[in-house]
Amino acid sequence: MKDASTNSNAKRMAGEAAAELVKSGMVVGLGTGSTVAWTIKRLGERAREEDLVFLGVPTSFQAEHLAIASGIKLTSLNQHPILDLAIDGADQVDADLFVIKGGGAAHTREKVVSCSAKRFVIVADESKFVQRLSRPVPVEVLAFAIRLVERRLQSLGGSPVLRQAMRKDGPVITDNGNLVMDVDFGTIQDPRALASKISPIPGVVEHGIFDNVDELYLARGDGVEKIRRSR
Ligand code: 5RP
Questions:
Q1: What is the pTM of this model?
Q2: What does the DSSP 8-state code read for residue 128?
Q3: CA Rg value for the chain
Q4: Which of 62, 91, 108 most suits a substitution to test ligand 1, by most atoms within 8 Å of the C-beta?
Q5: Is 35 touching ligand 1 by the criterion CB < 6 Å?
């Protein structure tokens, strides 16, 4: 078992390594969470130190504010519908580069941004890497629809739990004004098949299974391993 500081060093290594992918003239999707935060901060440094000129598209309130504080110029998908690159963290990633995201409840925008990019890179420390995905799947849901969605998720074999806020009474409200259910499906044998059953449920805004990752920057030991999608 790794301690928290090892994890945070590993997050930093992976996050900063991916910042080197950004070149002048690019439009880049900026993910959410503590690993990609290192990417965003490093990109701010590179913009100052190397005259790197690029635009960022943030995936959340957190990413937007960190990018602004880091001195990164921002744009929107309306202005730049096709991104050169998107970089983001993950809650779990398997050997086929299927990913579970949404630990920070930002997976809907993260999916829109990553699907708008020509290349999608995940940054993670080794603790996230598994043979088979097994974390509860975050599902963003319209508040109006939670009872219907709950029943449909149960009929797929899942155990949904409405995510509660930590320092507010009541549920987490996403940046889009919706709720989040964390749905335990046990070990997920076929992530793509499960994803295709969750998506059409009326009231589901987006789920946290991602099948569009091109490359993983995985901090392992003293280095960062780069794993490309082979499927
Ligand atoms: C937010 C996410 C994050 O990318 C994911 O939770 C990983 O976060 P961290 O890098 O802090 O471990 O999907 O919705």
A1: 0.96
A2: G
A3: 17
A4: 91
A5: yes
Residue pLDDT, tens place only, 127-184? 999 999 999 999 999 999 999 999 999 999 999 999 999 999 999 999 999 999 999 9
Give the pair of three-digit tokens for residue 138: 């975050």
> In 3-state terms, what secondary structure has residue 82?
coil
DSSP 202: T
**Integer Cα distance of 38 and 16 in angstroms:** 6
Q: Token pair 């943030």 is at which residue?
A: 58
Residues 46-65: pLDDT tens digits? Answer: 999 998 999 999 999 999 99
- Residue 110 catalytic? yes
Look up residue 108 and give its two tokens. Answer: 């809907």
Tokens of 116: 């708008």
Residue 110: both structure tokens together: 């993260």
Q: Which H or E run includes 30?
A: strand 27-30
Q: How far apart are CA 26 and CA 132, in angstroms?
A: 34
The phi and psi torsions of 218 (rounded to 5 degrees) equal -110, 115
